[in-house]
Amino acid sequence: MNVLICQQPGQFEYVQQNKPVLQRGHAILQVKRIGICGTDLHAFEGTQPYFQYPRVLGHELGCEVVEVDPSSGFVPGDKVTIVPYFACGECVACRNELPNCCAAIQVFGVHIDGGMKEFISVPTKALLKANDMSFDELALVEPLAIGAHGIRRAAVQQGEFVLVIGAGPIGLGIMEFARIAGGKVIAMDVNTTRLDFCKDKLAVKHTINAATEDVLQRLKEITNGDMPTVVIDATGNQKAINAAFLYMAHGARYVLVGLQKGNLEVAHPEFHKREATLMSSRNATQEDFDHVMRCMQQKLVDPATYITHRVAFTDVKAQFESWINPANGVIKAMVELS
Ligand SMILES: [Zn+2]
Ligand SMILES: [Zn+2]
């Protein structure tokens, strides 16, 4: 079978490997769709922290079961996605039912080889089935689950203002699940095209361009002087993250979904007087995946609209680098295998 390996930053190579053999507790899946996300792009660029090469990327997958033990509850032909975070089951986080932040987590396509190949072997306990969903939709569950998890961390309440900073695919998912939770979404980015997308496709009422507008003034106008009680970063940009401490209402929660390598910096009196809560949000749990799949099945979200670029698996090597350039307007690139 054909496998795409990221040999080192900036270098992909197709190699031929044997198809995996069915092991106990696993299923063999035929990969049908691979969503490309920031992690894949950063891994290719060489800017992803703690990343090791060579590595097979790809963790946002829509697959068909081809071989499986029938006692697993799956049969060949089932359409599945995978929860790509493999937890140790023993550490303090796992014992407290927080496998998403397992101390020894192995993310498929990040810490271990992932899905940029024709067939994969995956533990059946990582599979989620939805025969009524398309392979595109199945591949979009994981990035949405990241957003759904962030909203669950923030415990968004009906009617509160939720400022979402960063309108990439993760930010878009955060906006959708903030809306579903009853929040009033304010979208912020520095890219007009992305903000227009939020208005036109996600019906986000309030948008702010941080590059051209007075952010504090606009937030005050939108919230009647209160400021947002939930702020969520989906930029992973140090400057944006540090600036956003001042966007919080008194008593607000600030959730970091995006990640960057530097330090956080906030004036302690500003943080303290708000009695603010700062949280990180890592990966997602099966509960988030289930919530996302239900919302997709009920048509509360239609993330297929995020797909701006499609490419055949055999063309990924040639196309991948172009997806990094913001000028190409990529929101979501989707790889297709037949
Ligand atoms: Zn991803
Ligand atoms: Zn663990």
Automatic annotation (TrEMBL):
Gene3D superfamilies the record matches: Medium-chain alcohol dehydrogenases, catalytic domain (3.90.180.10), NAD(P)-binding Rossmann-like Domain (3.40.50.720)
Q: Where are the transmembrane segments?
A: none
**Residue limits of the Alcohol dehydrogenase-like N-terminal domain?**
24-131
Q: Which UniProt keywords apply?
A: Oxidoreductase
**Any Pfam family:** ADH_zinc_N
Molecular function GO labels: oxidoreductase activity
The protein's matches in InterPro entries, at most eight in alphabetical order, are given as:
ADH-like_C, ADH-like_N, GroES-like_sf, NAD(P)-bd_dom_sf, Zn_alcohol_dh
The answer, when asked if Oxidoreductase is one of the entry's keywords, is: yes
Task: Describe the location of the Alcohol dehydrogenase-like C-terminal domain by residue ranges.
Answer: 169-297
Q: What is this protein called?
A: Alcohol dehydrogenase catalytic domain-containing protein
**Taxonomic source organism:** Phnomibacter ginsenosidimutans
